[in-house]
Amino acid sequence: QVQLVESGGGLVQPGGSLRLSCAASGRTITSYAWFRRAPGKEREFVAAIRWSGGSTNYAASVKGRFTISRDNAKNTVFLQMNSLKPEDTAVYYCAGESANTYTYWGQGTQVTVSS
C-alpha cells in the first residue's frame, strides 16, 4: 500500500511562489506526478518525475515556471511553482504510478493565486 500526503498549498499573490511537497510511504513507485483541478474544470496533468534517473515532463502551461524534483532519502516529491498566475488556482494532487497507471493519490492541497 502507498500513502501520499501533500502539503504546502496556500494563498499567494500573482507573480509569487509556492513549493508543494508530497511525502510518500509504502513501496517504491516508478514515477510520481502532480495534477490539478480548477473549479468547474477537468483534472489536468501538471508535471511528472521518474524516481530512478529523475527525468521530468511538464505541461506546456507550466513549463519554465514550475519545477518538479525529488528527495530520495526523504521519499518526497516537490513542486516548486514560480511566477504564479490566477489561472494556476486549483487543488493540486500528488499521484503515484503503478503498472502504467496513476493508481495512488493524495488528498490534495489548495493553491489560490489572487491579489
Largest sheet: 7 strands, mixed
List SSEs in N-to-C order.
EEEEEEEEEEE
Q: What is the beta-strand fraction?
A: over 45%
Residue share in helix: under 10%
Structural class: mainly beta
SS field, number of helical segments: 0
Give the overall shape: globular
Measure the end-to-end span. 40 Å
Q: Which ranges are low-confidence, i.e. pLDDT below 50, for 5 or more consecutive residues?
A: none
Average pLDDT metric: 95
Compute the gyration radius: what is it?
A: 13 Å
The number of strands is: 11
Can you describe this structure?
With 115 residues, the chain is mostly beta strands. The chain is built from no helices and eleven strands. The protein has strands at 2-7, 10-12, 18-26, 31-37, 44-50, 56-58, 66-71, 76-81, 90-98, 101-105, 109-113. Strands 2, 4, 5, 6, 9, 10 and 11 form a seven-stranded mixed beta sheet that branches. Strand 9 and strand 10 (101-105) form a beta hairpin. It is globular and about 40 Å long. The termini are far apart.
Q: What is the topology?
A:
Elements: E1 2-7, E2 10-12, E3 18-26, E4 31-37, E5 44-50, E6 56-58, E7 66-71, E8 76-81, E9 90-98, E10 101-105, E11 109-113
